[in-house]
Amino acid sequence: METGAGAPSYPQLEKLAYDLYKRPLATFFLPAPPRELTPKAEFRSLPDQDLDTLKRDTLLLIRKARAYQFAWRNCTGRAIPSSSRIWRTVQLSTARPVAAQAERIREAWGSASTKQREWHDDDVALKRWRRAIEARGVFVFKNTFKQREISGFCLAHPEFPVITVNNSTTKTRQVFSLVHELAHVLFQRNGISAFERDSDRGAAAAR
Fold it and tell me: Across the chain, where does the E strand assignment appear?
């Protein structure tokens, strides 16, 4: 079949599409393969050795997030439902003091530290942070990553940035990943967060 000497049966084609290549069945009836962004093109700021460690399941989740981003854009008529777009009011820079920029983010989403003290547990904190970020135009998805060292990633966009968080990790790690990926969005670039050790105390790699 790969050399063109034969063709799969329909059941074989379904198995290839859904089980092996993780692509819509209709893709195989197109006159030519569709063009897709490669990880190296999509995450240009990441070293090649980091990109080479991304597993198939992670790449599939990135493709799904891109599809959600595309669907969100089309379902909303090319306009996001939120009038408060945090990436337009806050742009991060390595040249400015970190504490001042963190305070600017808090002001933008109205989350003072006094409010945080009222949150009873990690689950409440995660829900509040997610709600605050989505209210300011960044859509957040949660999924189970088989590649457990990957905590999350984001796809930046001028109008429709998205964040995906690994929900198989602890709530505290998810909160960290969520805010970490928001920082990537505010730097206006795609990003992937990984932990060097499978522990909330592990060093986060800012990528």
Answer: 139-143, 150-155, 162-166, 191-195, 204-206
DSSP single-letter state for residue 29: G
Whether residue 191 contacts residue 165, with contact meaning beta carbons closer than 8 Å, is answered with: no
The Cα–Cα gap between 25 and 65 comes to 19
Closest of 12, 21, 15 to residue 56, by C-alpha: 21
SS3 state of residue 181: helix
Residue 34 CA to residue 30 CA, distance in Å, equals: 8
The DSSP 8-state label assigned to residue 194 in this structure reads E
pTM of the predicted structure, to 2 decimals: 0.80
Task: With a cut of 50, list the residues of the chain below it in pLDDT.
Answer: 197-207
The pLDDT of residue 30: 92
**What's the N-to-C CA distance of the chain in angstroms?**
40
Q: Residue 59: in which H helix or E strand, if any?
A: helix 56-75
Closest listed residue to residue 193, CA positions, set 162, 149, 160, 156: 149
The three-class DSSP label of residue 188 is coil
Edge-to-edge strand list for the sheet holding 162-166: 139-143, 162-166, 150-155, 191-195, 204-206
44 closest CA partner among 171, 165, 192, 174: 192
Q: Which amino acid is at 89?
A: T
| CA distance readout (Å), 65 to 59, 102, 139, 163, 197 | 10, 27, 10, 8, 25
